[in-house]
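Regression test case RT-17, inverse folding.

Input:
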């Protein structure tokens, strides 16, 4: 298939919470004839105290599983009422009633938890397909999921075959597919938000020109708005930069949704259903760094601890780093990075990993295995990460701007935990200075 003008548009639960919102989704996909492949989640919350349809389905499935018919009936009523409201709003009352009967009998017949949980997506896609006169393609037919909850690459071929026709328009439910034994199973073992994976898999299967992921935010922000209120959105960011920002995209996008599209060199466009004129954020393989966009984001986290081991002549010994890291592995402690000096090596870990006696045990083991002259534990470390692919080429310049801005504000930096690596610069400060430092760096680098 050629990928000219093929857009896969995935909509999240908040975009599908009511009939009115579903009509907004219809308008968005209708306005661009290239939006031929629509992947849908299940209706989310209508207001802050509301419950997502997937949670209602899980509750009903649990009730039927323990044969609590009363509880099942009660929770199924809530599900039915959500969909009846949607059906009434879209003039599809009878169709929706018939679909609900099918779901209810399936659950009563013991089709299982994954089948039940996936019915929110199934119902929504069936209703949307009828409402917009698009072809409904059941994810069961085209999506194969392996034992690890990941996509089985067979899916790509099935998708390509099923959706080969040049002009047809399709609706595919997210979240689920079929396993080797032909049962309905969920992506990421039911990990929440995994309809994003379906969107990515469909995009790869049809070789889309772009994978649009529509939610209720304008994209990725330069930094966390809890630190810098109103922090601006980023137009373009590479997959690598996104990873270095430390979330792999997980706050905006399910992490397993990145690989299929990245491998197919398909950009992701994060868009906002409720602000559809905003172009959102493009996630791409390569971007041209414009001067003012040399830095694309800043992340920060408090609560790191540095465990520093010093001994004369340490840098000349072989295998010291391996010996040092062994107890960390043995305790299952993940480390952030390992700054090394002449006669010392430190391991930077998050304090949450050192609780429940892990810290004392670890220090004791390090004393025995490394016999250090000094074993020092420094806490109260916050890390700030600046990300931008141009750091690779101009890190001297960025460093200079960064340290002069922090010095001017009298923010103390901890050079023994700072580093430059690939697309990013990490600076250590005291915990209390993380937010003030990010504010200063935001002003310096985001304009
Ligand atoms: N409806 C599922 C959930 O609530 C899957 C998804 O929305 O992506 O997590």
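Golden output:
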């Amino acid at each position: 298939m050629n990928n000219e003008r093929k857009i896969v548009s995935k909509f999240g639960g908040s975009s599908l919470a009511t009939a009115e919102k579903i009509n907004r989704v219809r308008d968005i996909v209708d306005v661009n004839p290239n939006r031929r492949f629509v992947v849908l989640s299940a209706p989310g919350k209508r207001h802050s105290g509301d419950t997502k349809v997937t949670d209602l389905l899980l509750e009903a499935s649990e009730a039927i599983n323990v044969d609590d018919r009363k509880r099942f009936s009660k929770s199924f009523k809530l599900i039915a009422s959500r969909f009846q409201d949607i059906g009434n709003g879209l003039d599809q009352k009878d169709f929706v009633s018939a679909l609900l009967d099918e779901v209810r009998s399936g659950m009563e017949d013991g089709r299982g938890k994954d089948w039940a949980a996936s019915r929110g997506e199934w119902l929504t896609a069936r209703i949307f397909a009828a409402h917009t006169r698009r072809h409904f393609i059941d994810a069961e037919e085209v999506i194969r999921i392996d034992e690890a909850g990941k996509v089985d690459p067979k899916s790509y071929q099935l998708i390509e075959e099923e959706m080969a026709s040049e002009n047809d328009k399709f609706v595919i439910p997210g979240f689920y597919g079929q396993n080797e034994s032909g049962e309905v199973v969920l992506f990421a073992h039911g990990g929440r938000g995994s309809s994003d994976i379906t969107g990515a898999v469909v995009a790869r299967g049809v070789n889309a020109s772009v994978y649009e992921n529509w939610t209720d935010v304008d994209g990725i922000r330069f930094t966390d708005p809890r630190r810098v209120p109103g922090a601006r959105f980023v137009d373009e960011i590479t997959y690598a930069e996104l990873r270095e920002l430390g979330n792999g995209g997980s706050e905006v996008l399910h992490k397993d949704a990145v690989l299929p599209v990245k491998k197919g060199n398909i950009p992701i466009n994060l868009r906002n259903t409720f602000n559809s004129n905003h172009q959102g954020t493009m996630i791409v393989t390569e971007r041209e760094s414009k001067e003012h966009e040399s830095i694309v984001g800043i992340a920060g986290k408090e609560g790191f601890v540095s465990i520093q081991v010093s001994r004369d002549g340490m840098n000349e010994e072989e295998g010291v780093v391996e010996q040092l890291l062994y107890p960390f592995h043995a305790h299952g402690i993940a480390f952030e990075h390992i700054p090394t000096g002449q006669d010392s090596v430190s391991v930077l870990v998050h304090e949450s990993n050192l609780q429940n006696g892990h810290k004392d045990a670890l220090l004791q083991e390090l004393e025995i295995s490394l016999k250090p002259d000094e074993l020092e534990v420094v806490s109260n470390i916050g890390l700030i990460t600046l990300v931008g692919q141009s750091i690779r080429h101009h890190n001297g310049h960025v460093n200079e701007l960064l340290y002069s801005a922090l010095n001017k504000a009298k923010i103390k930096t901890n050079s023994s935990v700072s580093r430059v690596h690939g697309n990013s610069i990490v600076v250590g400060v005291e915990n209390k200075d993380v937010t003030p430092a990010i504010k200063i760096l935001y002003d310096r680098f985001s304009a």
